[in-house]
């Protein structure tokens, strides 16, 4: 019987559109590589070089350019020779050729990364899984494969009725030597509606189902209301609301439910209270509140309701702004003191002879040093604004600091190579080495106005190529 279902899946796969068949699934093929080799140094606990790779938002803003692996710093660095100083990961064996090829293909295909999926290190995941193993799990019994199930699998795998433009859902055996099925509609989601889920009603061995990005309604979920072997379900990025959870409240073996970016509220969570094996609920950007999550925890103490609050942990830019604000305040105070010193000698003309004594005061040499620093900051590398092409205003500057002349030289030779690591103006860590900066080693970019400076600050990589001497 197992050979039969394997043959069905293999034959059906021959008719798949190439886009759907070969496209890299992030959760299945890329997530494991990142968690095993990247997150220890670039996750929520540690951010070497101020780089994070644990969320879509952080990674795609830093070192990954969707559709362009050749311009993505991540791909460049993992492809370097093993003895190169910039290779990633820096410790242990380099990634295998297969792993590098998988990441390249994933980036070139658009770097599709479910926004709700936040990564943790392999060590942390192993610890979490070890703890989870101590909890009771559902008894999943594989059902005999009926003729109706064979026909349903073949129909889904062919993409019949969904639209040849986007191919077909990915339907495959969950693992070797099992009848359990994994079905993924995410890649063809925009064309998927309630009627396309009808074949699922005949697949008794359905174990994992991804309906993210689809156009389904609560009525469509009736087709999986009796999927007793279903343990993992994603409804992310759909318009489903509380009524949808009513349709699946009988799926008592469900262990993971993704409600990211849906209209589900606290009231809808009440439909989950009988799912005693439920361990994960992803409810970020939904209508679920912390109070609603707490109520579900009362009924299901072992469930973890993720509301997405863990993403905004590191905010170095705020610290930099505070420091920038302090500097002008000190200068303002010194400017106020100068008039007071001048007023004193006005009382007696004879005291004008004492002017040389004022030169001996300690604050003035410091003021001169600060003035010199200010002069350095005012010298822009470029003469024309990289955004508008107009002449530079010496007062509108974006300064990038480095730890040494070598790093400054490397950046000056090829700014586009390192700009992704720059975390705003007047950074405190060298974007190349990650070390503390030397304030005298700066690359200063000039702009014609505050608007252009603001545009550059939001997206330096977009304009850096136009910075020319």
TrEMBL record:
SUPFAM superfamilies listed in its UniProt record: Cytochrome c (SSF46626), RNI-like (SSF52047)
Instruction: Enumerate the spans annotated as Cytochrome c domain.
Output: 25-111
Q: Name one Pfam family in it.
A: PSCyt1
Entry annotated with the keyword tRNA processing: no
- The transmembrane residues are none
Q: Which UniProt keywords apply?
A: Heme, Iron, Metal-binding
- In residue numbers, the region (Disordered) covers 316-373
Q: Give the GO molecular function terms.
A: electron transfer activity; heme binding; metal ion binding
- Is Ion transport among this UniProt entry's keywords? no
Q: Please give the InterPro entries that the UniProt record associates with this protein.
A: Cyt_c-like_dom, Cyt_c-like_dom_sf, Cyt_c_Planctomycete-type, LRR_dom_sf
Gene3D superfamilies named in the record:
Cytochrome c-like domain, Ribonuclease Inhibitor
Q: What PANTHER family does its record include?
A: CYCLOINULO-OLIGOSACCHARIDE FRUCTANOTRANSFERASE-RELATED (PTHR35889), F-BOX DOMAIN-CONTAINING PROTEIN (PTHR35889:SF3)
What's the protein here called?
Cytochrome c domain-containing protein
Source organism of this protein record: marine metagenome
Organism ancestry? unclassified sequences, metagenomes, ecological metagenomes
């Amino acid at each position: 019987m197992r050979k039969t279902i394997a043959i069905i899946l293999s034959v059906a796969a021959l008719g798949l559109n190439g886009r759907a068949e070969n496209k890299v699934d992030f959760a299945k093929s890329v997530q494991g590589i990142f968690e095993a080799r990247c997150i220890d140094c670039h996750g929520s606990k540690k951010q070497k070089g101020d780089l994070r790779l644990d969320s879509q938002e952080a990674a795609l803003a830093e070192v990954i350019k969707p559709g362009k692996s050749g311009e993505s710093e991540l791909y460049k660095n993992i492809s370097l020779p093993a003895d190169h100083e910039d290779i990633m990961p820096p410790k242990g064996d380099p990634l295998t050729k297969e792993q590098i090829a998988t990441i390249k293909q994933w980036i070139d295909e658009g770097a599709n990364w479910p926004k709700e999926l936040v990564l943790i290190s392999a060590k942390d995941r192993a610890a979490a899984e070890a703890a989870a193993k101590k909890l009771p799990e559902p008894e999943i019994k594989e059902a005999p494969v009926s003729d109706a199930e064979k026909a349903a699998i073949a129909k889904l795998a062919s993409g019949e009725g969904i639209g040849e433009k986007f191919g077909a859902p990915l339907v495959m055996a969950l693992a070797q030597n099992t009848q359990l099925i994994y079905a993924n509609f995410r890649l063809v989601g925009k064309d998927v509606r309630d009627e396309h889920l009808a074949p699922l009603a005949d697949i008794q061995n359905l174990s994992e189902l991804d309906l993210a990005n689809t156009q389904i309604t609560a009525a469509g979920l009736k087709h999986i209301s009796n999927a007793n072997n279903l343990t993992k379900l994603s409804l992310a990025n759909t318009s489903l609301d509380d009524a949808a959870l009513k349709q699946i409240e009988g799926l008592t073996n469900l262990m993971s439910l993704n409600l990211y970016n849906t209209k589900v509220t606290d009231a809808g969570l009440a439909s989950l209270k009988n799912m005693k094996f439920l361990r994960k609920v992803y409810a970020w950007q939904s209508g679920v509140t912390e109070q609603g999550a707490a109520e579900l925890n009362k009924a299901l103490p072992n469930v973890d309701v993720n509301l997405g609050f863990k993403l905004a942990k590191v905010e170095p830019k705020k610290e930099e702004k505070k420091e920038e604000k302090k500097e002008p305040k000190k200068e303002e105070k010194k400017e106020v003191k100068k008039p007071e010193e001048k007023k004193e000698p006005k009382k007696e003309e004879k005291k004008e002879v004492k002017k040389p004594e004022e030169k001996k005061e300690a604050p003035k040499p410091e003021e001169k040093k600060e003035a010199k620093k200010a002069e350095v900051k005012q010298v822009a590398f470029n003469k024309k604004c990289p955004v508008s092409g107009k002449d530079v205003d010496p007062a509108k500057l974006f300064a990038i600091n480095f730890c040494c002349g070598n790093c400054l030289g490397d950046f000056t030779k090829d700014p586009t190579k390192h700009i992704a690591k720059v975390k705003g103006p007047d950074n405190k860590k060298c974007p190349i080495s990650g070390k503390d900066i030397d304030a005298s080693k700066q690359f200063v970019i000039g702009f014609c106005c505050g608007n252009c400076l603001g545009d550059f600050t939001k997206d330096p990589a977009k304009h850096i190529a136009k910075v020319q001497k």
